[in-house]
Amino acid sequence: MARKAGKKKGGSKPKPKPKTKTKTSPSSSLPTSIPPPRPVEPKAAPEAIDVLNGTVLRNVLRRLPLVDLLRAALACHRWRRVAARCLPRAPPLLGYFFHPVKTPPPPPTKDTERAHHDAVFAPLGASSPRRCLGFAPDASRFKLYDCHQGLLLLEPTVSPPKGTLPRLLVADPATRRHTLLPPPPRRTVPDDRRWRLSRQYVGSVLLSRAHPSKLCFEAVCFAIEDGHPRAWVASVDDGQCRWRALPRDTGVEVDFDPKLLKGRCVHAAGNLYWHICNSGRVLALDPATLRFSYLLAPAVLGDRFSKYRIGETPDDGRLCIVTVENQVYDTVPGLPRDARARMASIWITDIDAGRTGKIFIQMSGYGRYSFDLKTRKLERLVMKGGMEYGDPIYAYFLAWPPAFLAQA
Prior knowledge:
Layout: H1 54-61, H2 66-72, H3 77-84, E1 93-98, E2 120-123, E3 142-148, E4 151-156, E5 168-172, E6 177-181, H4 192-196, E7 199-209, E8 216-225, E9 228-237, E10 240-245, E11 266-268, E12 271-274, E13 281-286, E14 291-296, E15 309-312, E16 319-322, H5 339-345, E17 346-351, E18 358-363, E19 367-372, E20 378-380, E21 394-397
């Protein structure tokens, strides 16, 4: 019997089909979930002040008070450059220096109060910086004699011996620096012993300043020798002083008692002036040539008992002479009505060098006043403690331009 065809018993099993390996990308092994994208950080917005362009910043800065403008200029180089374009052309008035005094009694009572009070500073406004002379240790032994280009010149309260010239203290309240100038050496004048016999010292004045950030300046002191003026010039460079004497100016004759010359100088219209008591002329010095001359007052003022002062006009700085009519004083309480009594107790001390359009008037026994030439208003100059402004009253301007803006 034939066998059925089929698989043999105990035969080999069919081979399985080989599995084909599929290549997988490396990313297929990562989790299937996609991570969220990283948050995009917002770009930093510029500071609010940095978005101001030069024009806008300049319009902001020019509205600031001067003291705040100078402070803003210290913020950065950019602000300093912009602030330099906002500065006024003329140096700013910060306030006034003076020696306080007690109000003397009315005439004919004699004033027995001779106390010397240290110089103080009255700021023009609340934003003006406070100034004092406490940084100069010897300032209490000196009195103010001049103020020019941010510098103060002081002379000793004790007058020098006859025939000699005093030491001078020059201070810069802004930088708190000072220097003490020795008297001119005798060798600066040939045959000094001869001239000392007739020499009468008059006063000193600041002539010029080299730079607002340095104590470099020139000062002049002058005396009358045998009827003619002679000047000495001090050139100071950071504390180093060098004196030179000029020849006597024989073209100007002093035909009166030199004691009638006011020792304090007036800066006006580029020249220097010294008033002469009871005279219709003033002594002038040209800073460029250092030559003396006389300037005659208008004839209408007369030649004796003339109550006038020389100074600058407030608008354009031209030379002017001012006097005040008698009717102005009628509002002062207690002031005598008699013309002679008024003449004995009232005199004009100065035209305000701050060019405010005011003059300063001393009324012996009745106080010190300022008089506004436009409004014709009298205002008493009195301090909180009851003391009044002493004579002279020096307008103090900031040294110009400011040192840190000079290179802007």
